[in-house]
Specification:
524 residues, globular, single chain, 4-stranded antiparallel sheet, 29 strands
């Protein structure tokens, strides 16, 4: 269950949506067999993290933000071959250094999700305009892509085409991070906030508008325990452990929520949440603790009361009532009746996830960014935008992402087996089937002729190291080899293999499907 719809994330035939703009929800079949963990998006590209810590990406690659070589004649197809189909390509730059100029042609966009064979496992991802930041399993931050305003935090402004260590954060424990148009922020597990990149309008919170080429702690928040940062285009929001909301940077459209249009060079508390003004449309005003924030041109927040709050002047996604917009403080959206758990916003559209799993889109429907083509949408008098629930064909939303003109929704994935006992029962049945057929030479390893032990089968089966078609010889051999290695005492300590990780991801859903069919047909 993974859907995407775009206005013009890239302009090219076959951009995952046909030669025309995709104005309706488009299931991404490439990822349908994966168990997904999270997704992030910028105005230029989208990245998806699977539960096996693999990364798939698509979109623009002009600045190497996808960390793959997509220049014409290099690797400009989705099947991992060169453009003439002659030689398999790795999808990686042939680099002698992490700092490179992309000579020899402009990188072509990637039109469908492509596996990134990164050299190490990834735990979290963040996308900015033309750049990417990642937290690795080793606990270090790496960045690559556009670096014209030092948004990579690497002490210079050189573009990187491969993941490069952010040295200033090497010894810190990072809990989460966010990327804006040309700036980035990271939160440590002990509640410190580090910001770097373009400082115009004070978006870094360092009391200056200067560029900061390395991450620096925001000292004015030293007495607060920060748990979330959200980098917008030209402003930033932060949330504390106590549920306070801070805002800083560009204030010209009221996106800082303090009632005026002045820029703020350091974090300023959004007091309307504390003093109750944000809830003045209710019978009794009350203090709101914030759980989550989102930022692009305007600002949005989800409170512990599960209400959605919006501030900043936008005729598309802010308050329908111009009088409310003019107050420039957070107020509840009057038409929202759901309990809201998550919100994301783009330039002229936004999505929220309801506790029920429903996903609501609102704002400018042009170009399909709301995914509501062919559906009834409800306009509001005096408001430019429309709103409508998305038709996810019976699935429930789990995670959202918005770019400037596009949206991505990840749906809940329900396993076939409620507990390990049922899974083991299915695996046992499959093993008996394996033993019965192995004697015929159908599914033995062609090179060694060896057979799996029950232990090897069960151990590997439990973690679903199975690919999407059991009977394809090259896929079977790969799976068989790793079954054999699962029996080796040192197998868990083997060096991480990103290509294997891809096959493991494909296998999660496949194992469930095959064993489910055994149950359905009464073979177990």
């Amino acid at each position: 269950g993974f859907y995407k719809w775009v206005q013009a994330l890239w302009v090219s035939p076959g951009a995952g949506a046909g030669s025309e703009e995709s104005k309706d929800r488009l299931p991404i079949e490439v990822l349908d067999s994966m168990l997904l963990e999270s997704l992030v998006s910028s105005s230029t590209h989208v990245m998806v993290l699977t539960r096996r810590n693999s990364v798939f990406a698509w979109g623009e690659n002009t600045h190497g933000q996808l960390s793959m070589d997509t220049r014409p004649g290099m690797n400009n197809s989705s099947n991992g071959t060169t453009s003439n189909g002659s030689t398999p390509a790795t999808g990686r730059f042939n680099r002698s250094s992490s700092v490179m100029k992309n000579s020899g042609g402009v990188n072509a966009p990637v039109l469908a999700p492509r596996f990134l064979p990164l050299p190490e496992q990834i735990l979290q991802l963040g996308c900015g305009d033309g750049f990417t930041v990642a937290l690795t399993q080793a606990g270090v931050m790496k960045a690559w892509g556009l670096n014209d305003f030092a948004q990579l935090g690497l002490e210079d402004s050189e573009t990187r085409f491969s993941p490069t260590l952010i040295v200033a954060l090497r010894d810190l424990s990072i809990s989460m991070f966010s990327c804006g148009k040309a700036h980035s922020g990271a939160v440590t597990t002990d509640g410190q906030l580090f910001m770097w990149g373009k400082g115009e309008n004070g978006r870094l919170g360092h009391t200056t508008v200067a560029v900061k080429s390395t991450p620096r702690v925001v000292r004015s928040l030293n007495n607060e325990h920060i748990v979330q940062v959200a980098c917008g285009q030209v402003h930033t929001l932060g949330v504390t452990k106590e549920g306070l909301c801070y805002a800083w940077g560009y204030g010209g459209n009221g996106a800082l929520g303090n009632g005026d249009t002045q820029d703020q060079l350091k974090p300023t508390e959004v007091e309307a949440f504390r003093d109750g003004r944000a809830t003045k449309d209710s019978r009794k005003m009350y203090r709101v603790k914030i759980k989550e924030v989102a930022a692009f041109n305007v600002s949005m927040a989800v409170g512990e009361d599960k209400c959605l709050y919006v501030w900043g002047d936008s005729e598309w996604i802010s308050h329908p009532n111009p009088t409310e917009r003019a107050q420039m403080i957070p107020l509840r959206l009057s038409w929202v009746k759901d309990e809201v758990t998550q919100v994301k916003c783009g330039a002229q559209h936004a999505l929220y996830l309801a506790a029920s799993g429903a996903v609501m889109g609102w704002g400018n429907p042009h170009g399909g960014r709301l995914g509501t083509e062919g559906q009834d949408t409800r306009p509001i008098q005096g408001w430019a935008g429309v709103y409508s629930y998305l038709n996810l064909k019976g699935e429930q939303g789990a995670s959202l992402a918005c770019g400037e003109h596009h949206s991505v929704v990840m749906c809940k994935q329900v396993p076939y087996f409620a507990n390990n006992e049922l899974l083991d029962k299915a695996l046992t049945s499959l093993y008996e089937w394996y033993i019965a057929w192995a004697g015929c030479g159908i599914i033995t390893n062609a090179s060694s002729g060896a057979h799996l032990s029950r232990q090897g089968w069960m151990e590997l089966g439990r973690v679903a190291h199975l690919t999407d078609n059991l009977m394809l010889p090259h896929i079977w051999d790969t799976w068989f080899d790793w079954c054999m290695q699962a029996q080796e005492p040192l197998a868990p300590t083997k060096e991480y293999n990103p290509h294997l990780s891809k096959h493991m991801d494909m296998g999660d859903r496949a194992l469930q499907t095959i064993t489910f069919e055994y149950f359905r047909c009464g073979l177990v």
